[in-house]
Amino acid sequence: MPRRYRSAGRRSRGTLARRAAPIAIPVALVVVVGAIFAIVDHSGANTVNDAANANCASQAAYVVPAKPAGYGHHRPAPTASPTVVASSTAAPTTAASGTASPTAVASSTATATAAPTTAAPTTGAPTTGASASATPCPSATASASATSTGTTTTTAANVNCDIIVPANLLSAQGLATPYQLTGPDGMTPAQSGCTMANAANLGAFVQATILNPQTGALYVYNPLVITQGTTAAVAPTVPTLPRNAVVTIDFGFNGTDLTQVGATANALQQGNCVNGQAGSVFGQVSFCNGTTFFNDAFQLEREGRLKVPSEGTSAKIVASGGNLGTGQDCPTVRNFDMIDQDQSDNVTAEYLLNPATGQTAQDTTSNAGNLTGTTTLINGSDNALLDLFMDPTLGCTPFMAPDLSNNNQPTSSQALDELLAAKNQTALTALVPENDEMTLDGNGNLDAAKTNLYREEVGQTPISNQNNQQDSPAMYCQNMVNVQTPFLAANQTVLATGTSPVPAVGDNLFTFLANRLNMSFTNLGCQNFGLTDPVTVTLDGNGAAMAATLSTAPQTVTNTTGTGTGTGTATATPSATATTAPAGGHRRGRPHHQVMNPSGM
User: Fold this and answer.
1) What is the 3-state secondary structure (H, E, C) of 15-47?
2) In what order do the strands lie in the sheet with 119-120?
3) Could you tell me if 485 and 560 are in contact, meaning their C-beta atoms sit under 8 angstroms apart?
4) pTM, 2 dp
5) In terms of Cα–Cα distance, which of 423, 410, 278, 430 is closest to 344?
6) 506: which of 142, 290, 511, 549 fits an S-S bond (Cβ 3.0–4.6 Å)?
7) Average pLDDT of the chain, as a whole number
8) How far apart are CA 346 and CA 380, in angstroms?
9) Please, what is the Cα angle at 216 between 214 and 217, to 5 degrees?
């Protein structure tokens, strides 16, 4: 049977130091909000490593629950929740039920300034303790040291990788051709640490969502990523695609910047691939054929051939936010009650790793049963926070479709989550804002063109006067504060019963989400618009949030001309049991756009 590696740490887009399995090549380890990495065994017990909002947390391995009912996998499924799960049409063959290993978004243990006015009750009242400024994270690029292992030199500070994209990637054979992870600027995988054995720090993940243009049926397929110079542990399954299938491919990365490189001169052009702008990649994410996929999907919806379900409702949800809130509707990835500083990023694909050989395979029931000693590699995402933690706790379920690589068992994908959110948009719809770190230009400035490019690839409308009333940098901050804060306050009792994706960040789902909101406020530079951080977090001696106080008083921006580039600092209130603020490892640095680093580094 597969065995577990307790991964201690993972860096994604920010600052939390992480360690991979013992065979991992050393790299600079840092994490950020919106992504975590998990290495999981196949017994149903999952260990996760998380990212924090441009801040740091101590290294640890985290245990998280299995996926919600209906996820097709080789792990047992929990009780089903009440909302719609299946895609619009039946899978081509019988689908089995099961679960898969989870991921989630994390926040950091660094916390915010005092709440402005009325405070919501907390889970665990803050105990007395002196206020302390959070220790700044060092910049990931500050160290250029290298370590030598035998005849191979590994650059410890490298946080970026290249991914070699196969030719004809939108075809069945192209989907089954492994992508290759390698180092940037001519570095080998060994020199750069860009190996799937080091996936906790620099792993890449690819996910395809497939549309049948005749019937509107949806499918998912997870192309395999291997380390350049290796072969797949098991040759990927070649999917049977519908005629004239429309395929979108999403990329995720556990490092900082992942750059697409075509295996042939026209591979990227064939796939309509988008990696950002010249000299300014998006960062962890990139896309192929997303605009075409969503345009076709929306057209089929208008024609009635594609049926995207309702997001559902749940009696467990306490309505909040008045006219701004969503009542008892289940949250989606475009709701202000659950978004963070950089929504719509990273994927839910999983791979199996043979630690002895460094080879990977698709994470399927068959492969998990036939390969021994494997671990499961996961790219964390905001989607997983919703699908695997919030939905089960709130009595909701995600939108899923048959997995063509895994005997059509139902699974989720980033594109499915976007389709569900687009179908069920609320009065206040959260769209990728210009102050999202991934849409800033190469100098860290707001860039409307790059923001629109990103939005198009995830099926969102471009910037307009109309949606700027909700999603300009200033209004995104205001709506996040005025919608998410009362949502967390009203639902803190049920959320406190949920498992924390990262116990080192928050001791339950409520404190975790409160800390995440706290850091998103700072990272988006919301203080620059005249807003006050609505969250105050109390930390234990290890830097984990043990309580949170929320101010639910509505706020209004007073400065609409600010850039929203996060330059503030955050403070934390340690508990009485913490004699000092956690040192060494409390903050580790942020490798991405440093302008979003609340430490100012």
Assistant:
1) CCCCECCCCCCCCCCCCCCCCEEEEECCCCCEE
2) 119-120, 545-551, 535-539, 571-574, 132-133
3) no
4) 0.76
5) 430
6) 511
7) 75
8) 7
9) 110
What is the spatial distance between Cα 484 and Cα 238, in angstroms, rounded to a whole number?
43
Q: Could you read off the pLDDT of 113-161 as tens digits, one per residue?
A: 333 333 444 433 333 332 322 222 222 222 233 333 333 444 458 999 9
**C-alpha span between 382 and 257 (Å, rounded):** 18
Q: Summarize the confidence of residues 222-251 as an average pLDDT.
A: 97
Strand-strand pairing, 146-149 and 571-574: unpaired
Q: Bigger pLDDT: 395 or 592?
A: 395
Q: Name residue, tokens 């830097």.
A: 543
Radius of gyration of the chain from its Cα atoms, rounded to whole angstroms: 22
Within 390-502, residue ranges assigned H as helices are: 391-394, 414-423, 448-457, 465-471, 473-479, 485-490, 492-495
Q: Which residues are CB-contacts of 304 (< 8 A; sequence separation ≥ 6)?
A: none
DSSP 390: I
Encode 126-139: b = buried (16+ Cβ within 10 Å), e = exposed. Answer: beebeebebbbbbb
What is the distance between the alpha carbons of residues 472 and 512, in angstroms, rounded to a whole number? 26
SS (H, E, C) 558-573: CCCCCCCCCCCCCEEE
For 208-230, the pLDDT digits (tens) are 999 999 999 999 999 999 999 99
Question: What is 238-272 written as a DSSP string?
Answer: PP-PPTT-EEEEEEEESSSEEEEEESSTTHHHHTT
Does residue 549 contact residue 126 with C-beta atoms inside 8 Å? yes
* Rounded CA separation 580/510 (Å): 24
CA–CA dist 72, 53 (Å, integer): 31
Inter-axis angle of helices 448-457 and 290-303, nearest 10: 60
Q: What is the token pair recorded at 43?
A: 């017994």
Residue 551 pairs with which residues in a beta bridge? 119
The set of residues, in sequence order, having a beta carbon less than 8 Å from that of 516 and lying 6+ positions away, is 33, 53, 105, 106, 107, 340, 505
**What are the counts of helices (DSSP H) followed by strands (DSSP E) for the chain?**
15, 26
